[in-house]
Amino acid sequence: MKEFSKVLKELRNEKGITQEALANAIHVSRSAIAKYESGLGLPSDEVTETICSYFGVNKEYLFPKENIEQLITEKNIVINKQKKINIVCLVLLIAMMLLVIILFSFSNIGDESKNIVLNDTNVNIDINKTDDFQKEIVIFQYSGGYVYQRLEIHKISFTSDTNLYSLHVNNTYVNGYMASQNDESGFDKNEYTKKAYMGINFNYQTNVKPIVSWQQTHSKSFYFTTQFGEKEILFDGKTNLFDGAELENTKYGVLFSYDCKITDWLFDSEYNILRKCKISNDLYNPSWEYQMENKISETTTFTISSSYLFEATPNQIVNFTIETSMENKTMSIRQKRIFNLMI
After folding, report:
1. What's the distance, CA 102 to chain centroid?
2. Domain count for the chain
């Protein structure tokens, strides 16, 4: 007979929902769903009842063995043993990491490289009163270069009680070499970009519902409707957003479509990639990290872009954080900008 983990995963797949969507529906964390489906955890009686109600099945269907209590006891014994093994492995891993850190510290005595974390900056924006936030602002500057940031925000009337908000973020990285080439003073012409990073964190809020996030190498389209119950959608026609994205009201709902194929010119004639990028396109915590591969990519100025669409009731404060870092051979600079966006 199947175990609970396989039964739950099959039910979720049949319904065509993600682990996160199921977690929201039964009021647990996404990691709890992952544990259930991997066999590393079992739900409480209360959560079990909620799962049964959600999928329209009984407890015997979820736990297809005659002695359910014995199954749970046996599974918990296995889980507790695994936890003990994990603790031992974690202790050994920490000990090894400490040893590596100590050895690395001794091997780098005299290294001039520095990691500098600047103080967090709080930014309050009322989009109903100003558009100053849409200007480019240098968020930090040092001898190895600088980063300037630009936010663009648009409001779209959606229902009688809510609006859609389109948010676009641009981070542009200029290293010391390029700044010197542009005759800007105070920069070291021998400093190149080794790594660049941008990460964004949206705080979950009851009256703010993210719909989609997208970045320049991604293409998608889907229909959606209001996230705030059954309300008449007032938005009509078609409107363009950022980076080739657009909204159109149709009889099936509002169609979001995005198809912007930007060619990265940092390729040689044989199409060997000259920089590597790690992307996390999580709805609440997307991030980008670029690792430059050679002098051509290290000396360029480039931009990391990200866009978001969310629905919210008016007069809300949307909280999100943008973390930016730039690294060269002698220094790594990192800073967080904490935004309080009055919509």
Report:
1. 33
2. 2
Measured between alpha carbons, how far is residue 234 from residues 179, 248, 324 in Å? 48, 12, 37
Taking only the tens place, the pLDDT of each residue in 80-124 is 677 778 788 888 899 888 888 877 665 554 444 578 888 999 999
Same domain, 76 and 143: no
- 150 and 90 in a single domain? The answer is no
| Token pair for 53 | 């109600």
Q: Residue 306: beta bridge partners? A: 169
Whether the CB-CB separation of 339 and 320 falls below 8 Å is answered with yes
Q: Which helix (H) or strand (E) holds 19?
A: helix 19-26
Q: Could you give the maximum distance between any two Cα atoms of the chain, in Å?
A: 79
The CATH number covering residue 27 comes to 1.10.260.40
pTM score of the predicted model: 0.62
Nearest Cα residue to 48 out of 17, 7, 14: 7
Question: pLDDT tens-digit profile of 63-73?
Answer: 876 445 555 56
Nearest partner of 153 among 315, 310, 260, 262, judged by Cα: 310
Residue 6 lies in domain: 1-111
135 and 20 inside one domain: no
Name which of 142-156, 217-231, 304-318 the model is least confident about: 217-231
pLDDT digits 0-9 by tens, 237-296: 888 887 678 899 988 889 988 875 544 444 444 444 567 778 777 777 888 888 887 777
DSSP-H helix ranges across 210-325: 295-298
C-alpha Rg value of the chain to the nearest Å: 25
DSSP-based three-state secondary structure for 236: coil
Chain centroid to CA 19: how far?
A: 16
Between CA 263 and CA 271 the distance in angstroms is 12
Predicted pLDDT at 76: 62
Closest CA to 307 of 170, 157, 128, 131: 170
- Residue type (1 letter), 194: K
| End residue of a domain, out of 111, 139, 154 | 111
